[in-house]
Design brief:
about 450 residues, mainly alpha, Fumarase C, Chain B, domain 1, Fumarase C, Chain A, domain 2, Ribonucleotide Reductase Protein R1, domain 1, 19 helices, binds arginine
């Protein structure tokens, strides 16, 4: 019966059973129970501070809420769809347990500012977990980079062999992407960690509340500035999902490379068996499921971003029930992101490299052609002419089935007589990577420096 609901006073008939189920959020927002209780405890403490509750009443409420948390955690709580959401479920149980004092808790607040507060408390905690997982993955990458700092593989542009690079350099490229992701997340946290509580339904409250005190109790940086904005703003969630989308996009790029590298055609790496699965029909198969799934899950998170942007589009101030739809995409984003980061962080220390295959691949495709051109330029040839000479040499190599480093000095001198014996220093893979020795270059010496900086930052 609507009459039995906390808001039932002005209603003369019961809510339609389907409407009740359709409008309820308890099935998913019960996940916020801990943060809902945390917010209520701080609210009650503030109410006592300003004299709206006695200290005894506040203590009774706090104890009652703590008991409810234990009950929920012990699986001893019947969630009620007719009580709609986490806020009314907890409040009704409080009143059942402690009596009339429970009914005083909702003084000076509304579910509108309550839910906005709960989500921010919850998301703040999740951002801390996500940040930890990013760091763990970065440590894995830096360690792999360190192990493979001298390992040479072809670098690609257009997925065509371009120039030799080091595996360490490649791993550190992934590290850099995550470093930006980490920073973006901390920046997003600044806007998450603002307290809406006190905005009440939309206009604030007539009671002499102390919002700064509640914010301090809850560890928020400050209370929000405008009550209308506070109850309706979900920018912080949209911003978080956009950061998450970018992280997933990065993971999808790593995934794609791992899938390619683990294939027989590349054969650059071996993924640990426990991160792969087999085929029910093809006995030889070992499938890179984890990176494939992460690549696929990126789509869900991008979808969640669009869901939330579309949810907010054209919403008039202030709170609208539309906003109840914010939770599932947000929860799904956090679960997907945490799972994907965890899978990668767990997997990274066990990725085995196949140096011989990488080297073989780097020897194909004339990956040191640019080095030969640079060599000619140093000897005085204009770059465009050097480009032409090397192009002709590559054409010859294709015909003869020879890499530049496999040609004899006489063969090379057909294309330019300024080529001397010292050309072989630059035509080798080692010579090629070592020569790119400046900030950001692939030379092992440079990569080592970046690894040291990264390890200091990570305390690894
Ligand atoms: N379950 C609601 C939500 O998630 C809580 C706020 C509802 N407020 C209201 N006046 N109906 O947004």
């Amino acid at each position: 019966m609507s009459k039995d609901k906390p808001w039932g006073g002005r209603f003369s008939e019961a809510t339609d059973a389907f409407v009740e189920a359709f409008t309820a959020s308890i099935d998913f927002d019960k996940r916020l129970y801990k943060h809902d209780i945390q917010g209520s405890i701080a609210h009650a403490t503030m109410l006592a501070k300003v004299g709206l509750l006695t200290e005894d009443e506040a203590a009774t409420i706090r104890r009652g809420l703590a008991d409810i948390q234990s009950d929920i955690e012990a699986g001893n709580f019947d969630w009620s769809v007719s009580l709609e959401d986490i806020h009314m479920n907890v409040e009704a149980r409080l009143t059942d347990n402690i009596g009339i004092t429970g009914k005083k808790l909702h003084t000076g607040r509304s579910r509108n500012d309550q839910v906005a507060t709960d989500i921010r408390l919850w998301l703040r905690e999740q951002i801390a977990y996500i940040s930890e997982e990013i760091r763990r993955l970065q440590i894995g990458l830096v360690e792999l980079a360190e192990q493979e700092v001298d390992t040479i593989l072809p670098g690609f542009t257009h997925l065509q062999v371009a120039q030799p690079i080091t595996f360490g350099h490649h791993m550190m490229a992934w590290y850099e992407m995550l470093e930006r992701d980490y920073d973006r997340l901390q920046d997003c946290l600044k806007r998450v960690n603002i307290m809406p509580l006190g905005a009440a339904a939309l206009a604030g409250t007539t009671y002499p509340i102390d919002r700064a005190y509640t914010a301090e109790l809850l560890g928020f940086d400050r209370p929000s500035n405008n009550s209308l904005d506070s109850v309706s703003d979900r920018d912080f969630a949209i911003e978080f999902i956009s950061v998450a989308s970018l992280i997933m996009t990065h993971l999808s790029r790593y995934s794609e490379e791992l899938v390619l590298w683990a294939s027989a055609q590349f054969g650059f790496i071996n993924l640990p068996d426990r991160f792969c699965t087999g085929s029910s029909i093809m006995p030889q198969k070992k499938n890179p499921d984890v990176p494939e799934l992460v690549r696929g899950k990126t789509g869900r998170v991008n979808g969640n971003l669009i869901s939330l942007l579309t949810l907010m589009k054209s919403q008039p101030l202030a709170y609208n029930k539309d906003n109840q739809e914010d939770k599932e995409p947000l929860f799904d984003t956090v679960d997907t992101l945490l799972g994907s980061l965890r899978a990668f962080a767990d997997m990274m220390p066990h990725v085995e490299t196949n140096k011989a295959n990488m080297r073989k691949a780097a020897m194909q495709g004339f990956s040191t052609a640019t080095d030969l051109a640079d060599y000619l330029v140093v000897k005085g040839l204009p770059f465009r002419d050097a480009h032409e000479v090397v192009g002709t040499a590559v054409g010859y190599g294709v015909k003869e089935g020879k890499d530049l480093s496999e040609m004899s000095l006489e063969e090379l001198q057909q294309f330019s007589d300024i080529i001397q014996q010292d050309v072989f220093d630059v035509l080798t893979l080692e010579g090629s990577v070592a020569a790119r020795n400046h900030l950001g270059g692939t030379a092992p010496e440079q990569v080592r420096l970046r690894i040291i900086e990264a390890k200091q930052k990570l305390n690894a």
